[in-house]
Specification:
The chain is an all-alpha fold and 89 residues long. It has a domain at 17-60. Helix content is 40%, strand content 0%. The N and C termini lie far apart (62 Å).
């Protein structure tokens, strides 16, 4: 029995790459061009997870609710404050 694939919906035919896929493609191009790139767009981070983060994950593993789309307000404020102070590490 021959099974014909469903035709692609016209609403999605003209869609471009998603942002994460586009970032991944660009990073691969940059690596091929000889640039040193830390690929954080997709997949696993090349950096070890800091112990305090591991502990926080353990402590909150039972939580299953989604976070606000804009992120946690307290975290956003802390990041903005750090950036405003010019702290880089």
């Amino acid at each position: 029995m021959n099974v014909r694939p469903e035709p692609l919906n016209l609403n999605v035919r003209g869609l471009g790459l998603s942002a994460p896929v586009a970032i991944n493609e660009l990073s691969l191009q940059m690596i091929r061009a000889g640039h040193n790139v830390a690929r954080l767009g997709l997949g696993q981070s090349p950096f070890p997870v800091p112990p305090p983060v591991v502990e926080a994950l353990r402590s909150n593993a039972s939580r299953k609710e989604y976070l606000p789309v804009r992120g946690l307000e307290e975290l956003r404020e802390a990041v903005a404050e750090t950036v405003a102070l010019g702290v880089t590490s």
